[in-house]
Each structure stands twice: as structure tokens, then as C-alpha cells.
Design a protein that fits this description.
The protein is of the alpha+beta class and about 425 residues long. It folds into four domains: about 10-15 and about 80-175, Reverse transcriptase/Diguanylate cyclase domain (Alpha-Beta Plaits); about 15-80, MutS, DNA mismatch repair protein, domain I, CATH 3.40.1170; about 175-230, DNA polymerase, domain 1; about 245-355 and about 395-410, Dna Ligase, domain 1 (2-Layer Sandwich), CATH 3.30.1490. It has helices at about 15-25, 50-55, 65-70, 80-95, 125-140, 150-155, 175, 190-200, 205-210, 210-220, 220-230, 260-285, 315-330, 360-380, 405; strands at about 10-15, 35, 45-50, 75, 100-105, 110-115, 140-145, 165, 250-260, 285-295, 300-310, 335-345. The chain has a five-stranded mixed β-sheet with strand order 5-6-1-7-8. It has a four-stranded antiparallel β-sheet with strand order 9-12-10-11, with helices on one face. Helix 4 (about 80-95) runs antiparallel to helix 5.
Length: about 425
């Protein structure tokens, strides 16, 4: 590892939920266990499982019934989110003892920049110390990637699980990564992979050598970023303040059975839009992009979005756009999962309405009210009359869109 460049660790707790359960109940150690929802409903899919279960063919997202058929001795437990959140908090507190240059990215993983620490100690020595302490103090297994940037560190941490430590240098990229299928690259899902395949880009090496303008024409700015990653380039900093950035607020649900009834699907999207609106309100956020997620009975996923000039926050606005998106892109296949997300969010106070020929009339109607407020303020003082109540940000569950986002609150001062 070159001392002049950055040295970044990506630390990933292995099979986190299952590992935490084994910590709280040592009798489960060495056994095939899985964390799942209600096994009596089709919502009961495997969230995660121990490595003992994986060795027997159990996989994440597998139906509980199928998992039990494959492995009758499988121990299935309901999720205990408070327990996982507590373990996560102790994990990140331990990492902060090494450096404040820590960026939590989910409940069980984060980046550390240790460049300055390596002036007195080798990077691998530090990685082993971290792994040993997490195991000895928390009894949690982890894998660590050591690299000059975040993309390579994340890629490296996935290479040896559980309890692996892997170094991945930029010069290793052609030998180690380029022969892999693009779907195996961090940051590429099935939809993006299909678009790359359509361009005859099948491997990470193909992506690295492809014409950048051609990729951008199909994938936009994300295509440019993926092209750079395929060449081992990633200039993102390890940013401790990223925990304060909320980029999107969403909600999804797995239906009890495959649904093709339009009215039921409409009601589901309306409920999801209401939940998203409540969370946006609780966080005092609004966004300009509405996204609909559709998963059919065969696990084919569709994600469709619409970006508008005016930010949205209300359930009516979100639902109107989400429902139009769904109707436009649904192929009438039975639906297994639906999701609604509002992204490109910002503080409501920072959003500005763009006047157009379609909405200027609503502002014209407000002019008499504005004039009255100005008149009252001249008499009683600036701020005496307020057009609305500034609701403080909520700290309750409404402000939280998922456990993976909730954990971030534990890291904010």
C-alpha cells in the first residue's frame, strides 16, 4: 500500500442480524438460524441468515416455507430491531476509538480513513486490531477491505467472508475485477446490467474500456461514475457529516399474495404515499422526484421515476404522480411488492416554487392575503403575523423510513 495515497477501510459486519442473535443466545452458535418476518404470511421471507444456514442452501429473500423444506432444522427468529440498533451503536463507538474519520453507511457497515494512522503503524496491523477488538469485545464477526478509495475498499470487504481481510490496490483491478460480469460490480443492479448488456458490455473490463460518451447516453451521470469505478477510480471522501444528509424518503410493502386487482393496487399505493408524506412532514422535507418500485410474482423488478420542477410533500401530490407512473408502466403481471419513494429531498424552507403558466393563478389568489399581512406587520411589527406554524422536526417513528436509516440518528449530536 503506497503511503502517499489515501488508505481507507470498509468494515462490514458479517450476517449481522443473525450474529447478534447468536451473541444474545449462545446456544444458537454453530446452528443454522434465519431472521424472517411472520412465517404465517407470505411476508415471511428470509431477511438474513447465519453462515451455517447458507452452507445448507438458505438465501436472503427466500420464502420461509421453502427454507424450512430445504433445512427442517432451521431456527427461524423474528427480527429484534432495538437489539440490532444497540449492537450497531456499540460497533461504531468502537470504531471511533481509532479515528473520527468514520462514515457509517448502514446499520452494519462503514468506512474509516486511516491514512494518518499508518504513519506509525501498517494498515494491515490496524485492520487486524479492529477485527480482533470487534470479535473479542462484541463477539461479532466482520470482514474488512483495505484500499486507496471507497469503491475498492467496499469491493475488497466482499471478497472474504466471514472474518476476512483483503487488500485491493488500483493496480490489481485489471487482474482481479475485469474478468467479472458487470452484475458482480458494486453499484450495478439488474436493470443497469441489462442496459449495459444491450451495449454489448458484459464484463467489468468491457465497462472499463467502453466509450464513456456511449455509456453516458444510456445511463447518464451514473454511467460516467460506473466507468470510473471500473477503472478503479473513486475520489469520494470519507465524510463523517454524511449522516446528516437525507437523500430520499420511501416506504414499501410486500403484499400478502400476488395481486393483479387494480383497485387493491391503487389503495396500496395511496397508503404508501400517505406514509411517505407523513415522514417528509416529520422531517420537514420535500422532494422533486417521485419513484415507484414494482416487483412481480417472478421477482422481476421495475423502478420508474418522474422529476418535476416544484417539490412535493403532500400525500395527494405524491399519490397523483405515483399512481400515474404505476398505470403507465405496469404490464398487468401479478404484483408481489410495491414501493413509493420521494428523492432529491431538501429542507422545506429551502424549496422554491417555480411559477409557470399553469400555476401562477394560485399565487395571484394569495396576493390579497400577502397585502393584508404586510399591512398588519406595519402596525404590529415584523413577524407578528405568520402564515403557518413551523412544526419542529419529529423524533418519533414517523420521521424514520427504515431501520437502515433510523440507525443514523444514533450518530447525530
Amino acid at each position: 500500500m503506497q503511503r502517499k495515497g489515501r488508505i481507507i477501510l470498509h468494515i462490514d459486519l458479517n450476517s449481522f442480524y443473525a450474529s447478534v442473535e447468536q451473541v444474545y443466545n449462545p446456544d444458537l452458535r454453530g446452528k443454522a438460524i434465519a431472521i424472517a418476518g411472520n412465517p404465517l404470511e407470505r411476508r415471511g421471507i428470509i431477511i438474513t441468515c447465519s453462515y451455517e444456514a447458507r452452507a445448507l442452501g438458505i438465501k436472503t429473500t427466500m420464502n420461509v416455507g421453502e427454507a424450512k423444506r430445504r433445512c427442517p432444522e432451521l431456527v427461524i427468529l423474528p427480527p429484534n430491531f432495538e437489539r440490532y440498533r444497540d449492537s450497531s451503536k456499540r460497533f461504531f463507538n468502537l470504531l471511533r476509538e481509532f479515528t473520527t474519520l468514520l462514515e457509517p453507511v448502514s446499520i452494519d457497515e462503514g468506512y474509516l480513513e486511516i491514512t494518518k494512522l499508518t504513519e506509525n503503524k501498517h494498515a494491515l496491523t490496524i485492520a487486524h486490531e479492529i477485527q480482533d477488538r470487534i470479535w473479542s469485545e462484541l463477539s461479532l464477526p466482520c470482514s474488512i477491505g483495505v484500499a486507496p478509495n471507497k469503491f475498492l475498499a467496499k469491493t475488497a470487504s466482499d471478497m472474504k467472508k466471514p472474518m476476512g481481510i483483503t487488500v485491493l490496490r488500483k493496480r490489481d483491478v485489471p487482474k482481479i475485477l475485469w474478468q467479472l460480469d458487470v452484475i458482480d460490480m458494486h453499484g450495478i443492479g439488474s436493470s443497469t446490467a441489462d442496459k449495459l448488456y444491450s451495449l454489448n458490455i458484459k464484463t467489468i473490463g468491457d465497462l472499463a474500456h467502453a466509450d464513456e460518451h456511449k455509456i453516458r447516453s444510456v445511463l447518464g451521470k451514473n454511467g460516467e461514475r460506473l466507468h470510473q469505478r471500473a477503472n478503479g477510480v473513486d475520489n469520494r471522501e470519507v465524510d463523517p457529516n454524511s449522516i446528516y444528509d437525507t437523500k430520499s424518503v420511501g416506504n414499501s410493502t410486500t403484499l400478502p399474495k400476488d395481486i393483479s386487482d387494480l383497485q387493491t393496487l391503487r389503495q396500496t399505493i395511496e397508503k404508501l404515499s400517505t406514509k411517505v408524506a407523513e415522514r417528509l412532514l416529520a422531517k420537514r422535507l420535500a422532494g422533486t422526484t417521485v419513484i415507484v418500485h414494482i416487483r412481480d410474482a417472478d421477482w422481476h423488478n421495475q423502478t420508474r421515476s418522474k422529476t418535476i420542477s416544484n417539490s412535493v410533500q403532500s400525500k395527494e401530490e405524491i399519490f397523483d404522480i405515483a399512481w400515474l407512473l404505476f398505470q403507465k408502466h405496469w404490464d398487468e403481471s401479478p404484483v408481489r411488492l410495491l414501493g413509493v419513494t420521494v428523492s432529491n429531498v431538501m429542507d422545506k424552507k429551502e424549496t422554491t416554487k417555480q411559477l409557470s403558466m399553469f400555476n401562477f393563478e394560485e399565487y395571484v389568489k394569495e396576493e390579497p392575503i400577502i397585502a393584508l399581512i404586510d399591512k398588519m406587520e406595519k402596525k404590529f411589527g415584523k413577524g407578528a403575523i405568520q402564515r403557518g406554524i413551523d412544526i419542529p422536526k419529529s423524533s418519533n417513528y414517523l420521521a424514520n423510513s427504515s431501520l437502515s436509516k433510523d440507525f443514523l440518528d444514533d450518530h447525530k449530536e
